[in-house]
Amino acid sequence: HDGDYEGENVEPNDRKLLCEEWASYGVFYKYQPIDLVRKYFGEKIGLYFAWLGVYTQMLIPASIVGIIVFLYGCATVDENIPSMEMCDQRNNITMCPLCDRTCSYWKMSSACATARASHLFDNPATVFFSVFMALWAATFMEHWKRKQMRLNYRWDLTGFEEEEDHPRAEYEAKVLEKSLRKEHKHKETDKEKLTWKDRFPAYLTNFVGIIFMVSLTFAIVFGVIIYRISTAAALAISSTPSGRSSVRVTVTATAVIINLVVIIILDEVYGCIARWLTQIEVPKTDKNFEERLIFKAFLLKFVNAYTPIFYVAFFKGRFVGRPGDYVYIFHSFRMEECAPGGCLMELCIQLSIIMLGKQLIQNNLFEIGIPKMKKFIRYMKIKRRRSLDHEEHMKKKQRYEVDYNLEPFAGLTPEYMEMIIQFGFVTLFVASFPLAPLFALLNNIIEIRLDAKKFVTELRRPVAVRAKDIGIWYNILRGIGKLAVIINAFVISFTSDFIPRLVYLYMYSENGTMHGFVNHTLSSFNVSDFQAGTAPNDPMDLGYEVQICRYKDYREPPWSENKYDISKDFWAVLAARLAFVIVFQNLVMFMSEFVDWIIPDIPKDISQQIHKEKVLMVEVFMREEQGKLQMLETWKDKDKKKGENCNNHSPKLPRSHSGSLSSCHSYPLDI
């Protein structure tokens, strides 16, 4: 580093300036000194902080719109007819048990709080917000490309081409080992290199390892599902009505906390395993090593972070069966159902706890605590070693000796990775959690200064590396943006009740309102059709005998000829859902491509300046060539005149000797 960053008698230096004007939480409202960051750390790190600044800046409009959507839900919750019908105790809707034997019948009005809370996130404004966020993602990518072009021009990187990397030391060692083996067998070999046959064991290990770790993630999620089912059945035995009414919230909250702890632990494990798998592949260059490491780490961490959320969004409550014919796991655990208001509220809880917990614990506490702990351990080891040599201890330490106590720089992959995973939380399931951009914005305001403080005070100074873009991360961002459109289309159509409400409003409503929607989505079941041993142990728990209970599905009633078969309403809603997915996906994709097309990648003033510089450069070259041409003509004229003078002063000779006269005065011309 340039010098110390704290103390009274410290001379002014760039490190001290960065610490005061950049790596301080008190300047969170100021723009970053990107040019000074680039000067001190190099272009590659400068581009990372520039990208992080642009991303944080673009989260401001997304946060404002998300807050407006949330406030719209709060303002209209008392006018939402379906939730009012669910909360109305006069409807006297008796629901079927949530588990076998130990659970009894229950009133739909007991789920009033969940239904009202669901409306905060499941309302028509969330559809608009999903479209807005898709266009926001496209605009963000275009805005970053323009910002990156400005930085390239300012940092003189427009004509920069990355040189071919030198082979890594590990690769050279493997090649040398292979050459020595062949020489030992007395074979004549050309310049050796590692082929796919040499790497096949590593490729096989990579494939098996990744499949195993993905399967491990699925197994853990399945274990949490078993926990949810068994805990829900255990809590349902509670004799207090308040305990039974809070079963869903308790089970959901504890299961999400378990998921969060597992995700944080597996993230660290998967990061180490991804690095080991990449090392045994022995990539040729550092660039190849980094790209392969990024791919493996992103794949594993993406699956780890989003698998529990995908389960709640698209699988929970889809394969339940019906009363009298439920689907069981291991012949004893009944698949869990969604709440009467749908699974969107539970998806919101899952997403918010995982996102906030991951950012708070993993991204912030780990980034502060672990480097400080490693620095303290390294300092204690050095202090113990130097206590044996008093003279060495009394010497004034050189800068490199002081910096040795700092944590080595491990690359930008962990920094980008946490932001890419956060970008996925902000875009992929934003239909269920409109406040995600706001929490991401608050986290990033701290994250920028936290990363800055870590780079200036906690890490050894990295070797400056030139780069003109953020590399493979841009393609990953574009891929997440495209995937977000598809996932949000399925969340709106299959997880929320937006489509069933539209179908009821325009096909089944008698007066053009949502009155009767809740009753329309519930099917009837005759309690005499329960399988043996599955009926409630206490059928009189509500104080009266129940003959017909209701459950959420589109099926024929028990008095129909084809009782409990899927009704026509189910197929009408399914067709509407699929049609919405197709229309939404193609419309939003088209709008995103239009935004991509209409916004130029290079700002107009930069393109004009580059064009002007090229014209000036061509003019300079033309002027130089014209000067050379004029000089050549001048030399030719002089040579011609001197040749004529030589002919005039010499006697006439035969024509056969005239050639010697032409060389009377000759000048070598080197153009």
TrEMBL record:
The keyword Membrane applies. Residues 1-34 form the Anoctamin dimerisation domain. Residues 656-671 have a biased composition (Low complexity). One of its GO terms (molecular function) is intracellularly calcium-gated chloride channel activity. Residues 37-613 form the Anoctamin transmembrane domain. It is a multi-pass membrane protein. The chain crosses the membrane at residues 48-72, 125-144, 203-229, 249-273, 293-314, 419-442. InterPro entries: Anoct_dimer, Anoctamin, Anoctamin_TM. GO terms for cellular component: plasma membrane. It comes from the Eukaryota. Keywords: Cell membrane, Glycoprotein, Membrane, Transmembrane, Transmembrane helix. Residues 640-671 are annotated as: Disordered. The keyword Phosphoprotein does not apply. Belongs to the anoctamin family. This is Anoctamin. It comes from Strigops habroptila (Kakapo).
